[in-house]
């Protein structure tokens, strides 16, 4: 036999008033149906919860233990509608965000601080991965929003650009090109040992480099997937690399940065991406806040 929320409320009222008449008045009902509610609750629980006499009402030991749980049940039940409303409005819940390592250098921290301020009841789970793996995770529904690099299949994903930045050459400290007062052209890099982005794991940056100059003209020494690894190799004197402007925030000693001539002033793009069929209000709210938070970045 199960009990009802009304029966639980009846027990709490009687326990707090220790008087059936006052408890009935508080619940805006008469005393006989209140007594029946308590009797049905005790039958469902299987033990007496109250002791009654003509002059007083007291809780049994079982009743005192049940009262603590009863108050929790009522608190949860009373709070449930508000929780449902905030989730429906995209104001609470859990959102899983994938991000590229390079986006964390300067952008991610301030953006998350702004989102936390705007959506204090939202829990954010962060997962670092390259864009390729983010798109796989979106497809498998293991993340909700990706912060990554284009391109994206519009039949599967919706996206919006949230950030742009310059392309820089990462050079070993003391490199001759670091003395240049004008931006570096790709022809200046023809005879340099190039640390290249992986065409599979870092396709976006690899495509940018090969569009700027055919791959056959690069002296390619290393291929890596992470910008942080690239910068570490530059610091070790292994070559030079094309990196997003945010890489300078890594603060790796032994590396200097110089702007590169590009057709667009800020060609490196970062997008918020989500499944096109995701209709959750929270997902749309997070995308909106990502756009809003990056307007000043």
- Radius of gyration based on Cα positions: 31 Å
Query: Strand order of the main beta sheet, please?
Result: 4-3-5-12-6
| H/E topology pattern | HHHEEHEHEHEEEEHEHEEEH
Helix content: 25-40%
- CATH fold-level topology of the largest domain: D-Maltodextrin-Binding Protein, domain 2
Instruction: Count up the domains.
Output: 3
Oligomer: single chain
Q: Please give the count of helices.
A: 9
CATH hierarchy: architecture of the largest domain: 3-Layer(aba) Sandwich
Features:
single chain, alpha/beta, D-Maltodextrin-Binding Protein, domain 2, Arc Repressor Mutant, subunit A, 3-stranded antiparallel sheet, 9 helices, about 300 residues, 5-stranded mixed sheet, 12 strands
How would you portray this structure in words?
The chain folds into three domains: 5-88, Arc Repressor Mutant, subunit A; 92-164 and 269-293, Periplasmic binding protein-like II (D-Maltodextrin-Binding Protein, domain 2, 3-Layer(aba) Sandwich), CATH 3.40.190; 167-264, Periplasmic binding protein-like II (D-Maltodextrin-Binding Protein, domain 2, 3-Layer(aba) Sandwich), CATH 3.40.190. Helix 1 (5-17) packs across helix 2 (20-26) and helix 5 (108-118) crosses helix 9 (281-293). By secondary structure, it is an alpha/beta fold. It contains nine helices and twelve strands. Helix 5 (108-118) links the parallel strand 3 and strand 4. The radius of gyration is 31 Å and the shape is rod-shaped. The chain has helices at 5-17, 20-26, 31-45, 61-88, 108-118, 131-139, 203-212, 227-235, 281-293, and strands spanning 50-52, 57-59, 92-99, 121-128, 145-148, 157-165, 167-172, 193-197, 219-224, 241-244, 255-259, 268-275. The model has no long low-confidence stretch (mean pLDDT 89). 30% of the residues are buried. The strands form four sheets. It has a five-stranded mixed sheet with strand order 4-3-5-12-6, with helices on both faces. A three-stranded antiparallel sheet has the order 10-7-11. A two-stranded antiparallel sheet has the order 1-2. Keywords: DNA-binding, Transcription, Transcription regulation. Residues 1-60 form the HTH lysR-type domain. Belongs to the LysR transcriptional regulatory family.
